Amino acid sequence: MKRVAGTGLMAIGLTLLGWAGWSTLRVAPSYTLALAPAMANAQRESAAFKLTPDVILESVEVATPDEHRPVATGLVAREGERLTPLMWRNAVTEPIFFADSSAADLATALAAIRDHANPDDIVLAWWDLSRAIRLVAKRDAPLDDPGARGLLFPASWADAPARERTRWGAAAGAQTGETFSGFIDALTLPEKDGAARLAKLANGRTCYVAVHISDVWKMAAAAPSKLSIAYKDFPSSGVSHGVIKLAKQWMQENNIDGGFAAEPMGGAMRLHYFQRRGDSDALIAKLLPFSTSNPAQLEHFELVYQLKGYWIYRLRP
After folding, report:
1. Domain assignment present for 167
2. Number of domains the chain is built from
3. How confident is the model at residue 240 (pLDDT cuts 50, 70, 90)?
């Protein structure tokens, strides 16, 4: 096992950009999403994926009328109607459609999946990561979703969900959506029950599970009744222990006893926390480095690789 985190009891410096509270993003309700052939710089950035020449790469720009520059940019691989995100950058505080994702980090995580999982194994991951696993790592990652659940939208973009779920869910069959629903359900269950549900999806094959820290926000967006997460910013002097003590005190005063993760953001510390105590028991919370979890010591999952926001497990037989 390489690059595995230690206790995972505290998540400092996570690559989160403020997922809940989308209504605080003050942008115009209308937007445009433009796809165009990838420029030379994007082509160079994608070199780490070692894609075959027949793969079509396109650049993405999301713009709003009152902003002089795009609010989000990305790089996708196109297979017919299917779009596979390979890189995403948000130019505003909160994410537009996807969390920030660097091509270098994704390529490294995909290489680790290819190294650990044999061609006959199965890899379960959120639909966007599953597409990248199939395309780049060449491993069986069957999950997909015609509803593109987990996309993140500013609250003011009322027309965005229908448009973007159609765009990003294109070419995924209805049956894949049913299977993906089973994956979402598994991640909301306690570890033992969730592991059993994932094993059922694997149908007797050796199974790996790949998650990213942003998946917890995708889960909250896809199943808000089953998972509730929020954030609060605290002034920071650069001494993280003092800020975390203050954050814990604030949570206690407000009767919030769910798990949390802390992230430095400039001169502030952002506290990401579950609003209900029971949410900390969900499998997705146990697979990620929240204060109430220990990814390196799970009973039903063996942590085989960890890089920044990516956590890759082998489901124990």
Report:
1. yes
2. 1
3. low
